[in-house]
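Reopening this one. Same input as before:
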Amino acid sequence: MPFQIITLSGMLGSGKSTIGKTLADRLNFQYYSTGNAQRSIALARGVTTLELNKLADQDPSIDREIDSVFKNLAHTNQNYVIDSRLAFFFIPASIKIKLNVDYKTAANRILHDSKRNNDEQYASLEEAENALRQRRASEVERFKKTYQVDIDNDENFDYVIDTTNKTADEVCDLIIEKFKLTPDNNHPLPFEGD
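Same output, byte for byte:
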């Protein structure tokens, strides 16, 4: 039987990690994220993830190494939920889901998330919102230049969900229903495009 991969894309604060972990748990899939890939590569190189990020600014091979992790997951023999802005691009046969959120809600979520790294801590809601807008614009431009893909183009995805006023469980319910997914069904029924 074929194995199923669900890729979750979206900006910071859209709920990718929370939704990804919740969905993987409910479906009994493996959860994997860009953070997992970065930690694994940093460990292999004997550096911290912060040091790896600084190295990546000067060494494009690090991004290529991270990208290759996701490309290799396309040939896996396990079911995965993958939280990554570009996994949909590297795994085109996946169920590609984009999570949208308004910037104020995203900023509020990040501002009040004690689990965020220090580099994602902000003094005010306005500062967080401005930083999110700048970071998203930078990512969109960088990915267009590097990969010739627009991560903000909804046509790249099978399903786009606005998480602004939804809980993680509500979003998971929508995904499970849309694609007829169950823990025992690793070959979901074909779905009609919207």
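So the earlier flakiness isn't reproducible anymore. For the record, The chain is about 50% helix and 10% strand.
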